[in-house]
Amino acid sequence: MRMTIRVAVIGAAGRMGSEVCRAVEAAGDLELAGRYDVGDDLGDLAGAQVAVDFTVPDATLGNVLHAVERGVHAVVGTTGWSDERLAAVGDALGGSPATGVLIAPNFALGAVLTMKFAAEAARFYESAEVVELHHPDKVDAPSGTAVRTAQLMAEARRAAGLPEAPDATTSSLPGARGADVEGVPVHAVRLRGLVAHEEVLLGSVGETLTIRHDSFDRVSFMPGVLIGVRNVVGHPGLTVGLEHFLDL
Ligand SMILES: NC(=O)C1=CN([C@@H]2O[C@H](COP(=O)(O)OP(=O)(O)OC[C@H]3O[C@@H](n4cnc5c(N)ncnc54)[C@H](O)[C@@H]3O)[C@@H](O)[C@H]2O)C=CC1
Ligand SMILES: O=C(O)C1=N[C@H](C(=O)O)C[C@H](O)C1
């Protein structure tokens, strides 16, 4: 029989945090130990074994370090992670080697698969671009998922020795060709009515391939978050990306 895992949620009043609280409460093998939001003292995180963080890029590193210093595992969905910030988590884990931290730009299983398929396909096409589409209350652009997708595609293109994608543009309005993520243009749409969507566009002479994922509801992220919570306790150290807990 599986032991009950005690979970604290940071950012609990937010769109994702409140959904995570409901998912944890509904899971028979998990117990919601504490809910924290802006201004709350995290203290001992209510004695939780795992802290789940869905807050804001400026707060998430501090929250993760707070957890790691107390030996509390962390599952993090907040975006905005740089190599320097990831290194700071790695350093902290050096002082707490039994603790695990999972940081994932997207917990929707279809989004994880989209990243994998995009990386797989990227080397076969001359042109590659990413379009992400989100609700207008999102504070960061482009999305963490789109940045990660573009990085994986760029890595695959480099490894295959592909040249820069063709683009004859010599005159444009600022932003018209999107953000340049390692040579892959990433375009961000903000539209009321949307939740979280991504399109990967690949093209060669005479054909295109489109890979699209849609999260129509934030419940779509919950199976992945719960997989993270259940697995992070057995995976000490830093794991970036849910794919590592999915045998992908
Ligand atoms: N990895 C994934 O699958 C997903 C990641 N996200 C990311 O999660 C983050 C949160 O997204 P939403 O829930 O939509 O935002 P939100 O704005 O609805 O919620 C954020 C919550 O964090 C709280 N907060 C801010 N600073 C805090 C602090 N220092 N301590 C504790 N709480 C604090 C806010 O008061 C708010 O309640 C964003 O970075 C978003 O991109 C969102 C959806 C899925
Ligand atoms: O803010 C959101 O909503 C989302 N954020 C994540 C991201 O930036 O990639 C994941 C998903 O796209 C939803």
How would you describe what is shown here?
It is a single chain. The protein is of the alpha/beta class. The protein folds into two domains: 5-103 and 219-245, NAD(P)-binding Rossmann-like Domain (Rossmann fold); 109-216, Dihydrodipicolinate Reductase, domain 2, CATH 3.30.360. Helices cover 31% and strands 26% of the residues. It is built from six helices and eleven strands. The protein has helices spanning 15-26, 57-69, 83-94, 109-121, 144-159, 222-232, and strands at residues 5-10, 30-36, 50-53, 73-76, 100-103, 127-134, 179-181, 184-190, 196-204, 207-215, 237-240. It has a six-stranded parallel β-sheet with strand order 2-1-3-4-5-11, sandwiched between helices. Strand 3 (50-53), helix 2 (57-69) and strand 4 form a beta-alpha-beta unit. The model has no long low-confidence stretch (mean pLDDT 97).
Short description:
The protein is of the alpha/beta class and 248 residues long. It has helices at residues 15-26, 57-69, 83-94, 109-121, 144-159, 222-232, and strands spanning 5-10, 30-36, 50-53, 73-76, 100-103, 127-134, 179-181, 184-190, 196-204, 207-215, 237-240. It has a 6-stranded parallel beta sheet, sandwiched between helices. The chain has a 5-stranded mixed beta sheet with strand order 7-8-6-9-10.
